């Protein structure tokens, strides 16, 4: 089923429907009108949780919508024996586990094959369900909070970490996210999953071992951009928009990577990336880059010279260089998700 990139716009519909249902269906006196607001207050963190579980911004928003619908339908039976937040996470976990039944894990191109050569045909795109997709920071990260918690949250939505999570069985995935990212106690996770503390601790141990063997999980975590990185990004935008290969040579790490979902082809090494841009990627000449933020990383909406969408670029930075250029080409859905207009200089989607 095709999902709308603007499923977030349904939030107001859920809120209105929720309030109407409570009026009709029996929240305690004096609480009418409050449930929808109380539920919506948890939307961002729930979306982040579901995105870590599912690897897709669109599936995460669908899962949160389903969580909200189930929650307000059952709100009159919520007796407050647990916190509202814990109750919502229990619902969201069940929704995600149901959604993951029988599905293949999502991946990045580098998870599926060795790097390609510049001469490799780009091939045909694989289905959207193959790929881990990008997510706007504002959909999954709180705008304010404890700096240490914010750093953990940013690290836990980076593409490499999401890729590592996909290697875990779904219940292990839930345990690791709840324990390591959200800092729940083992007893809280056991209660949520209807399991024992011993089972939770065993699942966490196995999940940690799997992640420890993953190069993705060991990748340098993101940090707030400093002045040097901000300067690096300005130089990158200038060089890319001028399509200056000499300038890009100075900015790309020698072992940098380029990937382009929905295509499985990916490249490793600055020389191959620059050869590809001069050859098959020459359509990028004259591009315009519009800054956005995705997966705790700097990102850009890339428009072609004719002003039409080309890609959402998510960059990895380390050691004063660009180490990865992740280009996502599903612009029909991704540009509205990021609030980007479908023509350069146009109006953003409502």
TrEMBL record:
Q: Which domain of life is it from?
A: Bacteria
Cite the SUPFAM superfamilies for this sequence.
NTF2-like, Sigma2 domain of RNA polymerase sigma factors, Sigma3 and sigma4 domains of RNA polymerase sigma factors
Q: Where is the SnoaL-like domain?
A: 233-323
What sequence ranges are listed for the domain RNA polymerase sigma-70 region?
40-105
Q: Which UniProt keywords apply?
A: Sigma factor, Transcription, Transcription regulation
Region ranges (Disordered): 1-37
State a single Gene Ontology molecular function.
sigma factor activity
Tell me which residues make up the RNA polymerase sigma factor 70 region 4 type domain: 159-211
Q: InterPro entries per the record?
A: ECF_Sigma-70_Domain (IPR052704), NTF2-like_dom_sf (IPR032710), RNA_pol_sigma-70_dom (IPR014284), RNA_pol_sigma-G_actinobac (IPR014305), RNA_pol_sigma70_r2 (IPR007627), RNA_pol_sigma70_r4_t2 (IPR013249), RNA_pol_sigma_r2 (IPR013325), RNA_pol_sigma_r3/r4-like (IPR013324)
Q: Where is the composition biased (Low complexity)?
A: 9-33
- State the oligomer form and interacting partners: Interacts transiently with the RNA polymerase catalytic core formed by RpoA, RpoB, RpoC and RpoZ (2 alpha, 1 beta, 1 beta' and 1 omega subunit) to form the RNA polymerase holoenzyme that can initiate transcription.
Family statement: Belongs to the sigma-70 factor family. ECF subfamily.
- Name listed for the protein in its UniProt record: Sigma-70 family RNA polymerase sigma factor
- Identify the species of origin: Streptomyces auratus AGR0001
**Species lineage:** Bacteria, Bacillati, Actinomycetota, Actinomycetes, Kitasatosporales
